[in-house]
Amino acid sequence: MNSYLEATRSLYREAALEPQEALCCTSSMPYALPGLEIPKEMLEMNYGCGTTVHLRDLKPDSTVAYVGVGGGMEALQFAYFTRRPGSVIAVDSVPEMLEKARENFEIAAELNPWFEPDFVTLLEGDALDLPVPDGSVDLAAQNCLFNIFVADDLRQALSETRRVLRPGGALVISDPVCDQPIPEFLRQDERLRAMCLSGAVPLDEYVGFVTGVGFGTVEIRARRPYRVLDARRYDLEDDILLETVEIAAFNDPVPSDGPCVFTGRTVFYTGDEEYWDDGKGHVVMPDVPLAVCDKTAGWFADLERDDIFVTDSTYHYGGGGCC
Ligand SMILES: C[S@@+](CC[C@H](N)C(=O)[O-])C[C@H]1O[C@@H](n2cnc3c(N)ncnc32)[C@H](O)[C@@H]1O
Question: Which listed site, 133, 161, 173, 305, has its alpha carbon 20 to 30 Å from 243?
Answer without folding.
Answer: 161
